[in-house]
Amino acid sequence: MRIDFGRTLTKRMRFSLEAMVPRTALPGNDVSIARRIDAGRSRMPSAMARVADVVEQHPDAPLELTITELAVRARTSAATVTRFCRLIGFDGYTQFRVRVASEIGRASVAPESPRRARRDLAPDDPPEVLVQTLMETHRRALEATADRLDLTAISRAAEAIANSDHLDIYAVGGSGIMAAALQGRLYRIGVNAHLWTAAHDGLASAALRDRTSVAIGISSTGTTVDTVQMLSRAAVSGAFTIAITHDAQSALADLADVVVTTAAHVPELRPDDLSVKHSQMFVLDLLYLLVAQQDFATATARLTDTARAVAALRRPRRTTPVRLPRGIQEIR
After folding, report:
1. What keywords does the record list, in alphabetical order (predicted)?
2. Who contacts 102 (Cβ-Cβ below 8 Å, separation ≥6)?
3. Half-sphere exposure of 310 (CA within 13 A, CB side)
4. N-term to C-term CA, the chain
5. pLDDT value at position 8?
6. DSSP state, 60?
7. Which segments of the chain are extended strands (E)?
8. The pLDDT of residue 112 is above 70
9. Is residue 138 part of a domain?
10. Which of 70, 78, 134, 251 could form a Cys-Cys staple with 65, CB 3.0–4.6 A?
11. pLDDT tens for each residue of 234-266
12. What is the count of structural domains for the chain?
């Protein structure tokens, strides 16, 4: 039975950090403050982001400062500090301080662990520092993305894709590179998936979509004009629309029936900026697996068929020495 998923969702699916992390943080909750801040940064106004910066740079500041003193340190108001606490899942500053004390206490007795990566790269960083910084930052980005994921939303997206007659994927630049991997994988399990990285071609395809189609727009910021325009046209045509972005309040997200968010984008040469593609790929890999699960037997069979089709194009392993032309000696 075909699902008319073009507009079956009369209410667009959204999720916020408050939905991901309960406002009353339970003592047993293992989501750290650092990960909560990473997950919520894209929704923080500049004043609130300054509070986050103070907390990240001086983890024990909440224990030493009153709410007013922390506000002064962050050049903002006590009300903003309270909103910051609520955004990352606490009822207020008091509960936030209790959690800070708990984390610092655990850290003092825990075995030494890799240091928290800096947000800035220094021009004189030695390779070993860059390796550690990248490893830690990529790990944090993946954890933050996993923490933010609305599994109901991404599962609904996978179901729609599996039941569609046609899938358009719109993305440009770095997001286009990630989208190409998704398109290739879905195509190999039988999804009629097409990637459009140029607005002229993408808009033409979007105009031909209907309620049997699904359209995905991928943009880290959610503001890439070409991607927004292509997804908008697909929505007008009646396609079920999916946005994959770090900003659930962005223009791209506003167009979508389902929004899936990744870790926040940092528009500078910082470790966090380099982790954006890993967060995107994590979400796209999960979406691919969820689509494959919709009909696992068929997906597996199609993967086998496509692998066999290209097997002859792979270079065989060398089993015998290469015979050189007479007069040419092998260089040893």
Report:
1. DNA-binding, Transcription, Transcription regulation
2. 27
3. 7
4. 66
5. 39
6. T
7. 166-170, 193-196, 213-218, 240-245, 258-261
8. no
9. no
10. 70
11. 999 999 999 999 888 899 999 999 999 887 655
12. 2
CA distance 292 to 301: 11
φ, ψ of residue 66 in degrees (nearest 5): -75, 170
The answer to whether the CB of 65 falls within 8 A of the CB of 73 is: yes
User: Is 199 part of any domain?
Assistant: yes
Nearest to 149 by CA among 244, 79, 69, 28: 244
What is the rounded average pLDDT of the residues 272-291? 87
Rounded percentage of the chain residues whose pLDDT exceeds 90: 53
Q: Is residue 46 part of a domain?
A: yes
Q: How far apart are CA 330 and CA 332, in angstroms?
A: 6
Instruction: Tell me the mean pLDDT in the region 151-176.
Output: 96
Residue for token pair 């929704």:
43
pTM, full prediction: 0.68
Q: What is the CATH number of the domain that holds 50?
A: 1.10.10.10
Q: How many helices (H) does the chain have, and how many strands (E)? A: 16, 5
Nearest in space to 57 (alpha carbons), one of 116, 113, 106: 116
In this structure, are 298 and 153 located in the same domain?
yes
Residue numbers of the domain that contains 58? 31-113
10 within domain boundaries: no
- Give the best-scoring range by mean pLDDT among 19-28, 124-133, 283-292: 283-292
Q: Residue 252's Cα: distance from chain center in Å? A: 15
Which pLDDT value is given to residue 273? 60
Phi, psi of 9 (to 5 degrees): -90, 95
- Please state, in angstroms and rounded to a whole number, the distance separating the CA atoms of residues 216 and 283: 13
User: Residue 41's closest CA among 257, 332, 275?
Assistant: 275
